[in-house]
Amino acid sequence: MGYYCDKIGAMPRDIRFIFILLLGACVLTLPCRISQAQSSFIETILHKKKAIVQVTAFDQEIIGNQIRRTHQNGAGAILNGNGLIITNLHVLQYKTYIRVTLSNGSKHNAKLITILPGADLALIQIDSNEPLETITMADSNKVRLNDRIVHIGNSHFIKNTISEGKITGIGRTHKGAQDIEILQTNLSLYEGDSGGPLINENGELIGLINAQLKNKHKSVFAIPSNKIRNIYRKYENELYNR
């Protein structure tokens, strides 16, 4: 036996009662599901935050009888358990010493491994006796407009900043090209945030912040993770073939 009704009031009393119970159950459980999803997302980001480091590059010059020291801050992401870290080349440029601060506050001297000037990328490495949390790289060619992202940076004003935003632009070399060359977001970039990773909802690296459009708020660009993967694989191949 079936029923066809165009409004609740037209339902038989027993069916109406069951319908209202089911509707109430849906309304009651929906906030819980949203809360659990949001909580899981936050937990993922906080966990991956351990793979993000502060990168400080130093230099000094002697002027007369005085030593003038300069430094520049940025961020980076740990790629493997051997302490290999990706960051922006411009964070290190014209500096002599590199120091990395892990999420637990421990400081380590770093050495420059290789650079990719055309992409503003650099690989550095630290020696650490402690286990290192690493970042997983996503396929940046699968990124779509309005994808939700989180940026973890190292602003001079607010240390270990976490900002949420969206992908607002995708750049390719020409129409029909598969590889994404640049990502644009609606994040705000502050001094010291360069090299900070863009992370998707799964806690995977999809890009590395490297520039902001001059005189334009919330127009930040990032290097796609596939470019980072290429420089990482190139280094691994060179290491294997030595």
Describe this structure in words.
Strands 1-2-3-6-5-4 form a six-stranded antiparallel β-barrel. It has a six-stranded antiparallel β-barrel with strand order 7-8-9-12-11-10. It is built from three helices and twelve strands, in the order αβββαβββββββββα. Helices cover 23% and strands 36% of the residues. It has 242 residues and is α+β, with helices and mostly antiparallel strands. The protein has three domains: 41 residues; 76 residues, Trypsin-like serine proteases (Thrombin, subunit H, Beta Barrel); 93 residues, Thrombin, subunit H (Beta Barrel), CATH 2.40.10.10.
Identify the quaternary structure here.
single chain
Order of helices and strands: HEEEHEEEEEEEEEH
What is the topology, as strand order, of the major beta sheet? Answer: 1-2-3-6-5-4
The CATH architecture of the largest domain would be Beta Barrel
Instruction: Give the beta-strand count.
Output: 12
* Number of distinct helices: 3
* Overall morphology: globular
Structural domain tally: 3
Q: For the record, what is the CATH homologous superfamily label of the largest domain?
A: Trypsin-like serine proteases
Helix content: 10-25%
Extract low-pLDDT stretches: 1-34
Distance between the termini: 78 Å
Q: What structural category arises from helix and sheet content?
A: alpha+beta
Rg result: 24 Å
Strand content: 35-45%
Average residue-wise pLDDT: 79
- CATH structural class of the largest domain: Mainly Beta
